[in-house]
């Protein structure tokens, strides 16, 4: 069986990719094809999320086991998981997270099931420019000053709340820090 998948981006309304891939291919095959076709760096961590009809996340399929899930949760790795294991009917939805730090992703939907098989994935349609793989950090954002702790985020003298009294702090706990000033 051949899957015809649609990729869309919330960041660019004009971005649209349609690809075909064999149902027996792994999620890693799909991952690598998407990254290669968009000229994204394959060394960045990525993840697929199998979603329900309302885009609610049902299952994560990761590039590698990070050891963060509890023993009650199954860990599915891209290299070991075939598309047909989770994507079996028209309209099935996935999220492909390509920028984990900034939680940026593509929406992926199974548009059509075709008879036959494919040796390797194929791009059928390519419209619009893909978003940058990694979002730039905004280094111009205001930072707290060392002396006041105030910044443009609304934190100031009332940061600790009305019940905070600096005289309640144990001054003995700070003597060790004062002793380190010469180092």
What does this structure look like?
The chain has 183 residues and is mostly beta strands. Helix content is 11%, strand content 28%. An eight-stranded mixed sheet has the order 5-4-3-6-7-1-2-8, with helices on one face. A hairpin with a 6-residue loop joins strand 1 (2-9) and strand 2 (16-22). The longest helix is centred in the first third of the chain and has 11 residues, at 27-37. The radius of gyration is 24 Å and the shape is elongated. Mean pLDDT is 83; it is low at 144-155.
Question: Topology of this structure?
Answer:
Layout: E1 2-9, E2 16-22, H1 27-37, E3 47-51, E4 57-62, E5 76-77, H2 83-86, E6 93-99, E7 104-114, E8 122-127, H3 175-179
Poorly predicted regions are 144-155
Shape: elongated
- Fraction of residues in β-strands: 25-35%
Strand order of the largest sheet: 5-4-3-6-7-1-2-8
**Element string (H = helix, E = strand):** EEHEEEHEEEH
Put simply, the count of helices is: 3
Q: Which class of secondary structure composition applies to the elements?
A: mainly beta
N-to-C CA distance? 68 Å
Give the integer mean of the pLDDT values. 83
Count the beta strands.
Answer: 8
Helix content: 10-25%
Main sheet summary: 8 strands, mixed
Rg value = 24 Å
